[in-house]
DNA sequence: CCTGCAATTATGCAAGTGTATAATTGAGGG
DNA sequence: CCCTCAATTATACACTTGCATAATTGCAGG
């Protein structure tokens, strides 16, 4: 009659760590850090809370590792897009921009995730370093792609162009995540391509699968 | 010998509500929702925790009002920039863009504030409505300014241009807030003006107080 | 000066938090 | 088959959180 002890299966360390990290990321994505309690994380990972302490010295450790995993995953996704992209520089840049402005990259959950970590990133020096590294890597990719476009450009100009393009991508991504339903399907991709194209001085809208809008940006 | 009861002054309701809301916003800005406990808020407002319940039925109420206050304040700041701006449409747009990309608008604290509310905004319908209203108002301002620029434009084109410009502003704002120190002073303003100018097809860099960079965006 | 009331403080409580530690049990090697 | 040990669960604890309620006290109006 006394409460029966819960049955369990022994799993490999890597599997359990992954499950816990994934659970933590899901919870943060949905409800912020406040929702990612040890009990909730363990529950979602199909495990009892004590196990967390067996794999991570502290909850902050788990959070730190989750952040690193998130960043790694984003960098991977990014690289995957570039691998599948065509060789033509303009088409390549277009594919990169468009990929960032549609699901699964443009997703309210990802925005929630990003927001959920900000304060911790500001406090923790390690996490701040990971953040800076990831951001600068992203920008470096953009710089490469811009440098490959036709026409000569100075290094300083390439830097500024990359920062601007990065801004457009991030900003539109943010808008799309924050107000899904405020835009037509594919609209943000179109707008992003037109804007990035205007900035670098090359028409990118032709490289988009959806039909371009009837009127161009510049009147 | 027993603990002496703390002295206090009676204040007007408005003053106390303001103090509590300001305290809550400061704390959220610094450390996220997790740092804004009733005790911490009361402490920073120079008051004991019980008083919060006297002015707000629940902590969530206080948070909701704080969010509304924040949004109102941002809209006000925005309007103030436009009032002080020159009459020439291009100069006006330039002033608007530049203002968003330097302190006090571009500030890590504001980003923290914004991030701290995201999850609550996603859950709470009232807060979501305030958010949407504020965002669309901001975009409407941009549409007006773009429509006032020389050259004819269709309404649909103006909409797309405004979304793109909004994206540039938000994205560069985000980058500057997230990685202060990664940019030279005034650099993001320059980049923002050049990018927005490229998008709307008008040179805006001339309207900036700082000397424009030696090379233009388009090669 | 006093008197009453609302603004404010003080105290208490149940629920939830992260963490420490002890008790179990699955599963591989002999 | 059993034995061992790490993986896992269970329990406990000190602390924090939001909220409720009672006890005070500043201050305006007579």
UniProtKB/TrEMBL annotation, chains A, B:
Keywords: DNA-binding, Repressor, Transcription, Transcription regulation. Gene3D superfamilies: Tetracycline Repressor, domain 2 (1.10.357.10). It holds the Pfam family TetR_C_6. The keyword Transcription applies. It comes from the Bacteria. The keyword Repressor applies. Residues 37-56 bind DNA. InterPro entries: BetI_C, Homeodomain-like_sf, HTH-type_TetR-like_transc_reg, HTH_TetR, Tet_transcr_reg_TetR-rel_C_sf. Residues 14-74 form the HTH tetR-type domain. This is TetR/AcrR family transcriptional regulator.
């Amino acid at each position: 009659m006394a409460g029966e002890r819960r049955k369990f299966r022994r799993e490999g360390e890597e599997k359990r760590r992954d499950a816990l990290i994934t659970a933590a990321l899901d919870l943060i994505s949905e409800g912020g850090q406040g929702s990612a309690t040890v009990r909730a994380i363990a529950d979602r990972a199909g495990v009892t809370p004590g196990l967390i302490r067996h794999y991570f010295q502290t909850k902050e450790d788990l959070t730190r590792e989750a952040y690193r995993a998130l960043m790694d995953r984003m960098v991977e996704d990014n690289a995957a897009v570039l691998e599948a992209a065509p060789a033509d520089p303009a088409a390549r840049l277009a594919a990169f921009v468009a990929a960032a402005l549609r699901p699964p990259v443009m997703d309210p959950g990802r925005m929630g995730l990003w927001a959920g970590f900000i304060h911790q990133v500001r406090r923790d020096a390690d996490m701040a370093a990971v953040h800076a590294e990831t951001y600068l890597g992203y920008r470096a990719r953009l710089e490469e792609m811009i440098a490959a476009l036709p026409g000569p450009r100075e290094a300083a100009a390439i830097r500024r162009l990359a920062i601007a393009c990065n801004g457009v991508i991030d900003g539109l991504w943010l808008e799309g995540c924050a107000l899904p339903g405020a835009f037509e399907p594919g609209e943000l991709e179109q707008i992003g391509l037109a804007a990035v194209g205007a900035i670098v001085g090359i028409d990118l809208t032709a490289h988009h699968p959806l039909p371009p809008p009837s009127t161009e940006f510049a009147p």
